Amino acid sequence: MVEQKMKIVAAIPARGGSVGLPGKNIRPLNGIPLVGRTVRAARGSRFVSEVFVSSDSAEILTVGEKYGAKSVLRPTELSGPTASSESALIHLLQNEPSLVSEPPDILVFLQCTAPFTQAHHVDHVVEALLAKNATSAISVVDDHGFYWEVGPSGEGVGLNHDPSKQRVRRQDISARYRENGAVYAMRVPEFLEAGNRYCGKTILVPVDSTWIEIDTSQDWDMAEAFIRSEPFTGFLTETETQPLRAVVTAFAGVHTDNTVFVNRDGTESIVCNRYDEIGLDRLLGRGMMLLMLDREEDSLAVQRARKLAMDYKHHLFDKMETLSDWRTKKGLEWSEIAYIGADIADLDCMKACGLSIAPRNAPAEVKATATVVLESAGGAGVLNEVSELLIARGMIAN
């Protein structure tokens, strides 16, 4: 009942200028720009009704809109390196017409620099704020480190342990938490009065995330090493979940991992995944039309398509033309086709189809274009994962 009565919105301040890592807010991490990641997390929350991106950069606002946020242009005087996030949040609350006419009860503040934020982290923080009747709540992660400071005479002084005594086990140290810069939730009247995200009774909400925040190139390298693989946990709009009648796939990079084995006699061989056969059988059994679309005719691809009961087409220069012809002959609307791409040559087709999908290890530009970035890498069961996604979400036309 509380959830239904309260108006809860999310705000993502994202400046165009960054001293430590220029352009970081629109830089793709595993194919998805940081601001896009943050918008997806907010939109996936069951509490948040609207998501706003506040920025002085038209490029950032455009990316935010692509992922489903509403844009708010921030004044120049609130966009410098010394401007606080609070000033941007207050500007949003006091100038966005929909928030002025109907002020929200709770504001969820998210930062692009915390790229591992997911929808359930937002939910945990909001739930804790409501359950504990707090005024503000912040996401934190467990920190079991031994902390020191430099004493008056230059000696090391233990902060959460006594170095003069036998070293205690790490798990026996009193619980400590580190703010991970990901999610903040505030009751709006108290926030506006205090002008501070830590207003009134502030509670800590431990989340199953990491402490990594991206401010420098070293932070970025750490995030890329940490992310490795991630399942699709994003938000699909009603438009993106329209009933589908066909799945079109590239061959190399989707059915395979792009590895080619050259035998002594000069013939080539590849490795495919049998789980893909299971996935496509499930789609065929539900009446889905299947097409393998290649750049050039490949005897291995032709044999694989025949085994999988897929149509096979190719075009050296223009996949889009070939796909358009096939679509017309099959009587399909663009919105009824899901396209799985793994190459720059797939981008036009991905943009035209109702749902675009990329394997985890696809090039960054391909993943940035995709609606869905999969957990599976090319050749590692991509088509089986896609079939599970479409069936589980009821996205196959009757």
Automatic annotation (TrEMBL):
CDD domains: CMP-NeuAc_Synthase. It holds the Pfam family CTP_transf_3. Its EC number is 2.7.7.43. SUPFAM superfamilies: HAD-like, Nucleotide-diphospho-sugar transferases. It comes from the Bacteria. Signal peptide: none annotated. It is an enzyme of class 2 (transferase). Pathway: Amino-sugar metabolism; N-acetylneuraminate metabolism. InterPro entries: CMP-NeuNAc_synthase, Cytidylyl_trans, HAD-like_sf, HAD_sf, Nucleotide-diphossugar_trans. It catalyses: an N-acylneuraminate + CTP = a CMP-N-acyl-beta-neuraminate + diphosphate. Belongs to the CMP-NeuNAc synthase family. This is N-acylneuraminate cytidylyltransferase. The lineage of its organism: Bacteria, Pseudomonadati, Pseudomonadota, Alphaproteobacteria, Hyphomicrobiales.
